[in-house]
Write a structure and sequence with these properties.
homodimer, Rossmann fold, 7-stranded mixed β-sheet, 12 helices, 39% helix
């Protein structure tokens, strides 16, 4: 691995504040094109979040924070409406609600709001570095790791959550190979994670989501490492559809299962996974592939884009505040007590 | 359900013998186009099997049998070479080997070979009808069924194996709804199964392969019903990649798991699943779709297209000879003893 490959992830920035507008790397067009979308209002940011121009729980929280700054700059009389519109852009990721609550507490001053948005972004990057260290220390030597969806620089302020652990683990020499599920229907694994891993020179192999159990049986994987969109107070974790299935099959094969997310993803007001709203998206995402219609007209599809993995199937939840092994309500509460 | 819808599956024929050539419904182009490929030599049939123009374990056995007839008619001096070429077209489905062994025993007479190929085709249709009855009787009332890949008229001489059980179960009023996994990378579920179910007026919902566990947790599914490409002497079953994962998640949720396949799929010479060769296909099938590249250049992919479900995860294997519940080596052997 050469130095430029090792540091290339630093050049990927999904969310770029430009002083008077927000520039978003258009993740719908990657890896074919590296193009950007400029948002000049909170409404445009909300649309970009809904349309998946920007995605990944931490990144949408950061983008929403900058959306509030745009509202304060350009239409301060609509600040409350802008907050509400951003909040409803996607229902499952709690980082979105957390970032908006933080912005709301600042008040209406545009300069103060911009400082808070920058703080949210900077803190996310620092949290990712810290989680990378903490998670990598759990891996062991020469392991194969399976990940799902995209949790890298594209999904965060930089470096990544689960992909941050993978970056840190590879840099420390712990990881022999990374496997990425393609992550239907939106193909975040195929399009985004493989792209990020190749840029960093990390040995990566794409698999069909449905090949994970067969891969585990082969012995090639010792850890599944994933991100989270919302973690309930008891450790139940909502994440990209397919995560729950990976957790069941990991347990079946004695493969360890790690969730990596900043503490802003933990929603202590949500008692358990059954209280988490699961976003259903349009069936059209399943009725075609990369914009090409594949299914006969008149077909129905069910397209939940998240699922809930019960805490009992999770070996470790890694946050920047520390690691919770064998998570349950008591251990999750302890994480917040000891870190205060 | 009206009469024309009820009988519409009878109009789907994937493999049509035309007296001097074999006409195959081109399954690569469905459902967008119903086009046919005409094969005039065993080599062309072998190519059609390898390229997935025709697919589904029983259908490729039937197509291969007609390929032998073409060799006997047109190049009798190359009959042994044609048998070898057809045998190597795909490694996992044992029906292919079974049909070719049956043809080889007939000898070199073209007319006798044509009668044998027709018998193989007719027997497959009759077996599917019988399996439909036997499997439907196990379902219970008002159930939701999840299936994988395509096991219908397109994969067989007609009616289908797992899809035959679904057709019979729906006709008997046992099935409330069918869920079909899209079946990456080749999308047999999305493209073919949904198309067949809609033609029959059976309520069908497409899901991402990775949504199966979340669906099971919702309580919508009581049975997983799948086909097989090879069943070992102990009941271990090779089937489309993703089947093993479904079996693990079904057991986790108390959902029953049924394998439906003609006895020609049972390979008593293969002791267990670990002796089954798993076909690896080109990574390109995962790196894009229909000529559109979705993954960055230089990416690696692992594309096993089958996996093995251990007998211990299977509640029932349904063949035309009878049903084997909780399959193991002794019960599988008993199936062949009692049917003789």
């Amino acid at each position: 691995m050469n130095a430029s490959a090792a540091s290339s992830h630093d050049s990927i920035r999904a969310v770029l504040w430009q002083g008077d507008h927000l520039r978003l790397l258009d993740q719908r067009r990657l890896p074919a094109e590296e193009t950007y979308v400029d948002c000049r209002s909170a409404a445009e940011v909300a649309t970009a979040i809904h349309d998946l121009t920007v995605r990944g729980a931490p990144a949408i929280g950061i983008a929403a924070a900058w959306g509030v700054v745009l509202a304060a700059q350009n239409e301060p009389e609509r600040l409350d409406a802008a907050l509400a519109q951003l909040r409803s852009a996607r229902p499952t990721a709690v980082n979105l609600m957390w970032a908006l609550d933080r912005m709301k507490r600042v008040g209406a001053d545009a300069a103060a709001l911009a400082r808070e948005a920058q703080a949210i972004q900077d803190e996310d990057l620092a949290a990712n570095r810290r989680m990378g260290e903490l998670g990598a220390a759990l891996l062991g030597d020469g392991v194969g790791v399976l990940t799902h969806c995209n949790t890298g620089s594209l999904a965060t302020a930089g470096y990544g959550t689960a992909l941050g652990v993978i970056r840190a683990g590879f840099a420390a020499g712990c990881i022999a190979r990374v496997y990425a599920g393609e992550t239907r229907p939106w193909l975040q694994g195929a399009r985004l994670t493989i792209w990020e891993l190749l840029r960093d020179g990390i040995p990566a192999t794409l698999i069909a989501d449905s090949a994970a159990a067969h891969l585990m049986r082969s012995g090639a994987v010792q850890w599944v490492v994933v991100g989270a969109d919302r973690i309930a107070a008891n450790g139940d974790t909502a994440n990209k559809i397919g995560t729950y299935q990976l957790a069941i099959t990991a347990r079946h094969h004695g493969v360890k299962f790690m969730v990596v997310a900043p503490s802003s993803t933990v929603d202590m007001a949500t008692a358990s996974g059954s209280d988490i709203e699961i976003e259903l998206r349009t069936p059209d995402e399943l009725l075609g592939y990369a914009g090409q219609r594949t299914v006969v007209a008149g077909a129905q599809a069910w397209n939940p884009v998240f699922d809930v993995t019960p805490a009992a199937l999770i070996d470790a939840i890694v946050t920047e505040r520390g690691v919770v092994e064998r998570p349950d309500a008591a251990r999750m509460a302890e994480l917040f007590r000891r870190a205060r």
